[in-house]
Amino acid sequence: MAMEQYYGTGRRKTAVARVFLRPGEGKIVVNGKEFQSYFRGVFRAVQALAAFRETGTAGRYDAVITVVGGGPTGQADAIKLGIARALLKVNPDYRVQMKPKGLLTRDPREVERKKFGLKKARRAPQFSKR
């Protein structure tokens, strides 16, 4: 018999997280490493598990997460959205708890591209009168 599994995709900036939830005792593995060792000292990483806290499902599911692209902050936020979406597959009633906290909203902000003639996306070279 196939194992029960729930999937959710999370994206933020250029990071993409694939989250697989399976009934278990709360073990979270990110790219083959333990969650704590993958996000050493990243404060935002703790917030990635907010969906478990809001729905009261902390410790009831094991999560196997693959995340690519971006940096620590983008990856943590991508994981947060992925977990929230996977929990919706577990029980659609969780939407009531997660929606007001903004856990189901995809943050649309992306880095603006650099334009030629400028130093950054909008920063112009310093003006020199002479």
UniProtKB/TrEMBL annotation:
Residues 116-130 have a biased composition (Basic residues). The keyword Ribosomal protein applies. It comes from the Bacteria. GO terms for cellular component: cytosolic small ribosomal subunit. Belongs to the universal ribosomal protein uS9 family. Keywords: Ribonucleoprotein, Ribosomal protein. This is Small ribosomal subunit protein uS9. It holds the Pfam family Ribosomal_S9. Residues 107-130 are annotated as: Disordered. GO terms for biological process: translation. GO terms for molecular function: RNA binding; structural constituent of ribosome.
